[in-house]
């Protein structure tokens, strides 16, 4: 009981339980309530000097007592989420080999080909419902970290439980080790993975095919969330498997939904229409083209045809503006956004010539939204919409302070990682964090409640609109275009309800629930971090 974090209550075991379970003498004599344990844990959390120390503290707490861990997260979400996920999880992944104490999740290597189903059956829980899987090639904006990327699936699944009430026994983090092309890791004495270059081509595809087939066989009710795969594989895997297994890619679809929700919220402030926007993206990878695809779907719903909608989206990548003359050699996902236009080499030129209403950074290149670019956005927009979405904080295209000051307080700003409040000319701005945590837990929960056969694009569009509707006038008054993280459980539940309804409407649900009963079904499924009695 004391060794199993799902069962352990620590000093909260009652006298009756200590006698019944043979724990007498194995614990200090004083009995504490869960709330008292939360207070002690939070006090110890606050004593940790650096964010990475706080991360390690929470990891050890989770490994010891999951109920207490999730109660702490539920009680202090605004402080805990930036530690267990962005931005601190980025540093945790970089240091994963050093701070490693106890394995959490499954490591499946290319060497296990031919026996992946057998390996999956080693997992102690048999009714897995949610799997977050990475191959570690593109961890946040940090690049190829191989198995050190395990911090991402672990963190995401902690958020599924704390934000959407998915029971931790249903959750399974997986890292697929196919090698790493990060040469610095090959001879690193603390690296935990295989010291070889990444497997590519047919061998990689056969490995993934066996993995997906094994998941469907061993855990037939599981939803598979693809996480932090490189551009060379992410779009291809999503396209190949999204209708074969209930699955989605959070970097493409979750990021798209949270960004679109931010845009829709911002337009409530500007009073302008979705169809009248022109978006300029810095970065044309998974996140950027995912946002553009979902924006296109929303604009089509608003009355534009698809061609017109796509022409509202422009991209600057490492070679300059993505234009029709560059079609040869363009990655497949960029081609729909290669418009007819003379070449432009820099972002500054693109801003000056295209005059976008919205500027979105998903490049992983810090400080690229310069003072001049932000000021220019404010020249031809009464309220410029500026999103610096790259993670972690060190990769953000600009800071919140830079956005507000260089736009003279006009900017509607959001970021991927959190920034502190900004004081400017007597006004306090609390910047919104465009964190995928607002989207993926609710989408996943909604799909699971009705056992949807797939997670459709329409579900993400509905999730984005639902999130935008949950932003209050009080949020807008302080410059925030997303709800407070203190409301994250409420947000996730409302999104789950709407996603479940869409799954039923579209014929994807295996469990049919009347509309008026869906809210109760979702709420009844929620895990609550409370101790059960064993006496």
Written overview of the protein:
The protein is of the alpha/beta class. The protein folds into four domains: 1-75, Hemocyanin, N-terminal domain, CATH 1.20.1370; 103-245, Malic enzyme, N-terminal domain (Rossmann fold, 3-Layer(aba) Sandwich), CATH 3.40.50; 253-434, 3-Layer(aba) Sandwich (Rossmann fold), CATH 3.40.50.720; 438-512, no CATH class. The protein has helices at 15-20, 34-47, 51-64, 66-75, 77-84, 88-94, 96-99, 116-120, 151-164, 183-186, 201-218, 231-241, 250-270, 286-301, 306-310, 347-354, 371-379, 400-406, 440-449, 457-469, 473-477, 488-505, 515-524; strands at residues 106-109, 130-134, 171-177, 223-226, 247-249, 279-282, 313-317, 320-321, 358-361, 385-388, 412-415, 422-424, 427-429, 432-433. Helix 3 (51-64) crosses helix 6 (88-94) and helix 13 runs parallel beside helix 20. It is globular.
């Amino acid at each position: 009981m004391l060794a199993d974090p799902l069962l352990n209550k620590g000093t909260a075991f009652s006298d009756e339980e200590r006698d019944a379970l043979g724990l007498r003498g194995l614990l200090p004599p004083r009995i504490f309530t869960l709330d008292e344990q939360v207070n002690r844990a939070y006090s110890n959390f606050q004593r940790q000097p650096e964010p990475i120390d706080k991360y390690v503290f929470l990891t050890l707490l989770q490994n010891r007592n999951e109920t207490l861990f999730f109660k702490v997260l539920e009680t202090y979400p605004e402080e805990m989420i930036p530690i267990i996920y962005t931005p601190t999880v980025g540093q945790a992944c970089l240091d994963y080999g050093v701070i490693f104490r106890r394995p959490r999740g499954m490591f499946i290597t290319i060497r296990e080909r031919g026996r992946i189903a057998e390996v999956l059956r080693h997992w102690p829980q048999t009714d897995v419902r949610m799997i977050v899987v990475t191959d570690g090639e593109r961890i946040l904006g940090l690049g190829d970290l191989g198995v050190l990327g395990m911090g991402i699936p672990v963190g995401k699944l902690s958020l599924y439980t704390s934000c959407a009430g998915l029971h931790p026994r249903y959750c399974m983090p997986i890292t697929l080790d196919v090698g790493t092309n990060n040469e610095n890791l090959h001879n690193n004495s603390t690296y935990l993975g295989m010291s070889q270059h990444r497997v590519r081509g047919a061998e990689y595809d056969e490995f993934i095919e066996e993995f997906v087939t094994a998941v469907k066989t061993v855990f037939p009710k599981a939803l598979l969330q693809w996480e932090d795969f490189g551009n060379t594989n992410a779009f291809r895997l999503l396209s190949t498997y999204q209708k074969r297994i209930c699955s989605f890619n959070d970097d493409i679809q979750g990021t798209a939904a949270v960004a679109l929700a931010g845009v829709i919220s911002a337009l409530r402030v500007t009073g302008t229409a979705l169809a009248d926007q022109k978006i300029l993206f810095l970065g044309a990878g998974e996140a950027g083209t995912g946002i553009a695809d979902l924006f296109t779907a929303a604009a089509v719903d608003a009355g534009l045809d698809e061609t017109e909608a796509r022409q509202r989206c422009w991209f600057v990548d490492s070679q300059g503006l993505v234009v029709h003359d560059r079609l040869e050699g363009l990655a497949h996902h960029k081609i729909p956004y290669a418009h007819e236009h003379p070449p432009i080499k820099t972002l500054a030129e693109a801003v000056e010539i295209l005059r976008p209403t919205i500027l979105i950074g998903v490049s992983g290149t810090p400080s690229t939204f310069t003072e001049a670019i932000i000021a220019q956005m404010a020249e031809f927009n009464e309220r410029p919409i500026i999103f610096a979405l790259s993670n972690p904080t060190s990769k953000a295209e600009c800071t919140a302070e830079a956005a507000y000051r260089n736009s003279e307080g006009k900017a509607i700003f959001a970021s991927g990682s959190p920034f502190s409040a900004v004081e400017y000319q007597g006004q306090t701005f609390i910047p919104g964090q465009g964190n995928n945590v607002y989207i993926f837990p609710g989408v996943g929960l909604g799909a699971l409640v009705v056992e949807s056969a797939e997670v459709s694009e329409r579900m993400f569009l509905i999730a984005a609109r639902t999130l935008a509707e949950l932003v209050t006038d009080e949020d807008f008054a302080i410059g925030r275009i997303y709800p407070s993280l203190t409301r994250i459980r409420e947000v996730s539940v409302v999104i789950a309800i709407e996603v479940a309804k869409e799954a039923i409407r579209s014929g994807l649900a295996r469990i049919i629930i009347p509309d008026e009963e869906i809210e109760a079904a979702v709420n009844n499924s929620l895990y609550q971090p409370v101790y059960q009695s064993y006496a």
